[in-house]
Amino acid sequence: MSRSAKGGVTLAKVGLAFSALILMGTFFSCSTGSPATDLNVPPPSRNTALTEDFSNLDESLWQRADWSNDGMFNCGWKPDHAVVSGGMLTLALDDTMSHDKPYTGGEFRSTDTFSYGKFTARMKAAKSDGIVSSFFLYTGDPWDEIDFEVLGKDTTKVQLNYFVNGVGHHEKMIDLGFDAATGFHDYTIEYGKGYIVWYVDGTEKYRVTGAASSLPSHPMKIMVNLWPGIGVDTWLKPFVYSARLEAQYASLSFTPAN
Fold first, then answer.
1. pLDDT tens digits, residue range 79-88?
2. Which of 19, 73, 201, 258 has its CA 20 to 30 A from that of 181?
């Protein structure tokens, strides 16, 4: 399922960026090295390991959203719906109106961008028709993205996806073998030159490979959010609010590639 925006990406910008990436991918297709060298993209703002267990949050490393997206995202995000307490990040979703949307959710992101390596979230998802609990990597502009999305209609599965300059439609639904809403589990994204691997609790669940120019390559932020959908009932089922919902995160981490 493609997305209209995350943090203000416009379709016009995505189109220009996609054209630029095709040209750069052609020119640099025979080079080797870091993603910044291979595809002429800017370097990450951080290339050292990061572990956040929420026991003593460094606020300079993280940002709570205070905005909304268009399209299928039927909520605004507010900082008070991304609360760190007791060694836990809790994202809330309730029927408070915000940013001209009928609901308010929580979104939390790193201030730094990161390149190739392993990214892990220890997460417990929310359960309800019509919602998504997520862990993903995201650029902004140009729009590269790699996703774990637990759809609240069936939390025994997780949807994987990735976007390159705003082009997605690479969805893969995975049976988890457990209910993601009843306990914490580790969800890991590993990506490098020409591959992405998704792991759950240390076990590889899915892998894609290809030319570096056909996969995400730009440095990305670590992000998590909780949101209700609108106009995507065949994907998420209709959302009917009945009570406050929460997704929780015990840790977020990054280990750079060798």
1. 999 999 999 9
2. 73
